[in-house]
Amino acid sequence: MHTCPVCGYNQLRYPPEDFTICPSCGTEFGYHDSRRTHWELRVQWVNEGALWHSRVINPPSPLWNGLKQLIDSRLPFPYPYGAGFSAQSAGRSTNIWSGTQVQYA
Questions:
Q1: 3-state secondary structure (DSSP) of residue 33
Q2: CB-CB contact of 39 with 32 (8 Å)
Q3: pTM (2 d.p.)
C-alpha cells in the first residue's frame, strides 16, 4: 500500500503518480499536482472540511476523520477553518500550533 502525500491516506493501491486518484482527498496525481504543491492541495482539502471524496470507495472506518488522518500521518497541515484545533491521537496530545503548521510535542 502507498500513502497520499496530500492527505495522509495510507491505503492507496498504486503509487501517487500516473493519474492515480486518492479516494480520501480526490487528488489526481499527475494532474492536480502538476501546477500546485501537495501543501497547497492539502490546505484546500482542509479548508473545504477534510471530507471523504470518493462516492465509490468507502472510508476505512465508519468513524473516519480527515483531520485525525492528517495528525496520524504526521504531515504538516494548516489551521482548520481558521481556528485552533485540539485532538488526541494514540492517547497523546498531538498538536501545538505554530504559524500554519502543526508541530508535535
A1: helix
A2: no
A3: 0.72
Q: How does strand 96-98 pair with strand 101-103?
A: antiparallel
pLDDT tens digits, 8-58: 999 999 999 999 999 999 999 999 999 999 999 999 999 898 999 999 999
Q: Which alpha helices (H) appear in 1-105, and where do they start and end?
A: 38-47, 66-73
Question: Which three cell numbers, joined as nine digits, stand for 81?
Answer: 477553518
Cα 3 from Cα 30, distance rounded (Å): 15
87 near 68, Cβ under 8 Å? yes
In a domain, 88, yes or no: no
Structural domains counted in the chain: 1
